[in-house]
Amino acid sequence: MKLRILFAILSVMVFFCLSAKIHTLSFCIGEYPTESGWNELGANNDARLIKDIFTDAQVIVNEKATHKRILNELAVLKSKVNRGDTVIVHFSGHGQQILSTQSSHEVDLVDEAIVPYDAYKRKSTAYFGQAHITDDIFGQSIYDIRKAVGSNGLVISVIDACHSDSMDKDADGTSDVYRGTDEIFGTEALSPDSIAKLRDLYDSPDKSPVVTSPELSNVVFISACATHQRNYEIKVEDVPYGSLTYYFCKIFEEKGVADLNGFLSCLYKEMTSDNIMSFHGQTPVIRNTIDWKAPSQEKYIPPTSEPSVRQDNSNVSYWWIAIGGSVAVVIIIFILCRKRKK
Questions:
Q1: 129: left (phi over 0), alpha (psi -120 to 50) or beta
Q2: What is the model's pTM?
Q3: Separate counts of helices (H) and strands (E) for the chain
Q4: How many domains is the chain built from?
């Protein structure tokens, strides 16, 4: 009987070792339609970088990353994850503020939105923002995924897009490229006084805490910049990348995220130390449920218990460990049975 109980316990342990997975879903848009009004970005390079670092990632690129496809893929992801899984959702492309229809709960009276392939920069009689994906809609998808992976899971949202300011090249006398626009979508019919009010609240980001619940996983929202800042592209060996995508992949490859607090601190330090970003005053924003604080705000102290995340490029090692553990279990049971017969 004791042997059966031991075998059952070890079998369950092996099952969980084998079943817990990491899922990476990435949307990279570097080539928007000319008529959309959006400039080209280096997001194609981001897509290649994601594929190199996260070998099992599903990467949706350019014309495939439409409004409908993005929301559908997020829904499919929610349906296929299991309890205890880790999920990384990545977006690289344009970002824009859009006049909120529920401004009472928006401090700055606007929503931040990611810009799918089929979203236009300006409002018209045919386009009124229906393809923009606002923070409320995107946030609900992340919430649903957090619920699906449960309290033992982890969700990381990586948004490499600008939610403010100009996207035009050479707008300030440099060749820098930024991923957004200072044009708030939907303000064409507003009075000068209303627009002035919006500008007065422009640098008033939402500081509400991230939702927590015993049934939800921990979550880390990583944005390349604050809502009122530009998100600048950087160049590495003359190749343009999204600043957040590049440093996220770089730190992930070097350190992994088993020490999630340490990973975030390294990411924050690398981004704020970058010459282009520091020159323009761009600061990444990391909202989370693990009580991580930016190093400039609070000294980093490793917690006694931290979420653990597997790296995609080490999945093979984990499989061999699990298989080795299974073999060891069989050998132990075989030896114990032999001794019992004697």
A1: left
A2: 0.75
A3: 9, 11
A4: 2
